[in-house]
Amino acid sequence: MSNFEIKTHRSERTYTKPHFFILNKGLNSGKPLDKPCPNCFVITTTSEETRESLYYLCLSLKIGKYFSYYLKESVIPFIGISDAKKVINEALRNNQEQQWTIKVEKLKKINAFEANLQQQLKTILQLKIALLRS
User: Fold this and answer.
1) Residue of 79, 39, 82 whose CA lies nearest to 62
2) pLDDT, tens only, 64-106
3) Same domain flag for 8 and 64
4) Cα separations (Å) of 22 from 38, 92, 131, 134?
C-alpha cells in the first residue's frame, strides 16, 4: 500500500496511472478529491486497489483533523507537500497492523449513506419549493 507518489498538480498534466487529488490550501487541506482543483496535490499509485485504499485513508485523516496540525499561515492556511506525505506515511505505518480493508469497506458504506441523505434533503427542499409555488 505504500507504493504512491505525491506531486503538485498542474492543470496541463494528464495522468495514466490510478490517481486522486488532495486539497492543499484552506481549512479543508488534506481533503481527497476525484477531480482536480487549482490548489491540490496529485497522488498516483500503481493499482486501483491502492488508490482506493489511500483515498479513504486521506479521507479518514481529514475527518480526524490530522492534517490541521501542519497547516501554515493565518490568512489562507496551507499544508506543504512534505508534511502531507509525512502524515500519510505515518498513518500507513500505524494502519498496517490493523484490518484496514474492513475500515475502507465501512467508510464506503458511510459515504454512500451520506450521499443518500444529501439526495433526500435536496428532494425535500424541492418539495417545499413546489408546495410554496403552487
Assistant:
1) 79
2) 889 989 999 878 899 999 999 999 998 888 776 556 777 778 8
3) yes
4) 11, 16, 40, 44
Sheet holding 40-45: strands in order across?
A: 4-8, 40-45, 19-23, 32-33
> What total number of domains does the chain contain?
2
CA 28 to chain centre: 9
Q: Which residues contact 118 (CB under 8 A, 6 or more apart)?
A: none
Amino acid code (one letter) for 12: E
Q: How far is CA 78 from the centre of its chain?
A: 15
User: Is the same domain home to 69 and 23?
Assistant: yes
90 lies in the same domain as 120? no
Q: Which pLDDT does position 3 carry in this prediction?
A: 81
In this prediction, residue 1 carries a pLDDT of 47
Higher pLDDT, 64 or 127: 127
Provide the H-helix boundaries in the chain: 48-63, 81-95, 100-133
Q: Which range marks the domain in which residue 53 is found?
A: 4-98
Tell me if 51 sits within 8 A of 19, measured CB to CB: yes
Residue 32 sits in the same domain as residue 79: yes
Cell numbers for 58:
486521506
